[in-house]
UniProtKB/TrEMBL annotation:
UniProt keyword list: Coiled coil, Signal
Ranges in a coiled coil: 314-341
Domain Transglutaminase-like: 95-157
Stated name of the protein: Transglutaminase domain-containing protein
One Gene Ontology cellular component: cytoplasm
Signal peptide span: 1-19
Any Pfam family: Transglut_core
Length: 374
């Protein structure tokens, strides 16, 4: 009961703050609604206009939000077409050209303009709950870091209320505090709940909240800071672990996990392919150098070269063979489920290595009499 009272208090405070923001943002809304059409052909153009006309992050994010929900319509013909993690550039350019899209398009456009205005932001994937019932399709929304704190935004849900280009702009899902937003929006990655004590999927679905002494503390700020610096592979692995550790999954979460695992597998396979091809290149270089020596020998070592020059050739062959073997070893230790067969290449490298050693011994024996005379 105490927990419920706290949540209701947070909601009331958020609503009062929200009403105040509506008044404070009237000028930002007016300017955003009147951005010249010639300045809205790309997110870069929109961001440039906003950066020129606003000097605070608060007003910038408001102008971005107002423009998106007022100029992009929800596409009913694509209502069930939600593809997780689709190419972000395509999501943006496609929707800007058509001036309509699904939740992914709204989130991608809003996120892209925010980033180009210098704001820390993310497009977040997850699912929602309305009237205490979990929706069957996935959803996408945004989080933005303003005034040293993260807040949540759902331009898709507000777009239906702002279908005209006139004020006042109605926004119910603009700059919402995380404890309020989690009542209706569950991100796949618990990190994006922006809560010190994240809810499990089951708790969200059932509308229950654990006491803090039961829930495990999570430093989402540090995790997001690390996430921003991570390469894609580390991001995917981290998200997979957090999702798996957050309790029982529904079909949407299972789909997201499958997609993350596929992304991880593809990165491993691409890395293996690059290593394999580079190993082949090393082998080909070594073979070419070795063949140069054979041609030199067949020409009775004419024109004459110094011992140091010949030794350098052998060293180059040996170095390339070592490099190829090192890369193939990495391929053989790959974490990918579908691995490359390196057997034939390793056999060819070993054969070349043996031939090179034979020729090196031959050359030393060939030069020995001349060296003894000296």
């Amino acid at each position: 009961m105490k927990t419920l009272a706290v949540v209701l208090c947070i909601i009331c405070v958020a609503l009062r703050t929200h009403a105040q923001y509506e008044n404070d943002y009237a000028e930002a809304d007016r300017i955003a609604l009147n951005i010249p059409a010639s300045q809205t052909n790309s997110t870069a153009d929109i961001a440039a206009y906003i950066n020129k006309n606003f000097d605070t992050d608060n007003k910038k994010v408001r102008a971005i939000y107002t423009w998106v929900i007022s100029h992009i319509r929800y596409s009913n013909d694509s209502i069930h077409r939600v593809i997780l993690n689709e190419d972000r550039d395509q999501l943006v350019t496609f929707a800007l050209r058509r001036r309509k899209g699904v939740c992914e398009n709204f989130a991608a456009i809003f996120d892209d303009i925010c980033k180009k205005c210098g704001l820390r932001s993310f497009a977040v994937e997850g699912y929602t709950k309305q009237n205490s019932s979990v929706d069957r399709t996935s959803h996408a929304w945004n989080i933005v870091y303003i005034d040293k704190k993260w807040s949540a935004y759902d331009p898709t849900w507000d777009a239906g209320q702002s279908s005209t280009f006139y004020q006042p702009v109605r926004t119910n899902y603009f700059m919402i505090a995380p404890p309020v937003f989690i009542q209706t929006h569950m991100p796949f990655d618990p990190m994006f709940q922006l809560l010190d004590y994240p809810l499990t999927y089951k708790e969200f679905n059932n509308g229950s909240i654990r006491a803090k002494n039961v829930a495990k503390y999570f430093n989402y700020n540090d995790s997001i800071n690390k996430y921003e610096k991570d390469e894609p592979l580390e991001r995917y692995i981290g998200a997979t672990e957090r999702i798996q550790n957050n309790g029982a999954a529904n079909n949407m979460i299972s789909t997201k996990l499958s997609q993350l695992r596929l992304e991880i597998e593809l990165i491993y396979q691409v890395k293996d392919s690059v290593l394999y091809n580079d190993a082949i290149a090393d082998y080909n270089f070594a073979t070419n150098e070795f063949n140069n020596f054979i041609a030199y020998r067949n020409n009775q070592f004419k024109p004459e070269k110094t011992d140091a020059q010949i030794q350098l050739l052998f060293d180059e062959v040996r170095k390339s063979i070592a490099a190829a073997r090192k890369k193939l070893k990495e391929v053989n230790q790959s974490k990918a489920k579908l691995t490359l067969d390196t057997g034939d290449v390793e056999y060819a490298i070993n054969k070349l290595d043996n031939h090179m050693k034979e020729q090196e011994v031959f050359f030393k024996n060939y030069k020995a009499p001349a060296n003894n005379k000296q």
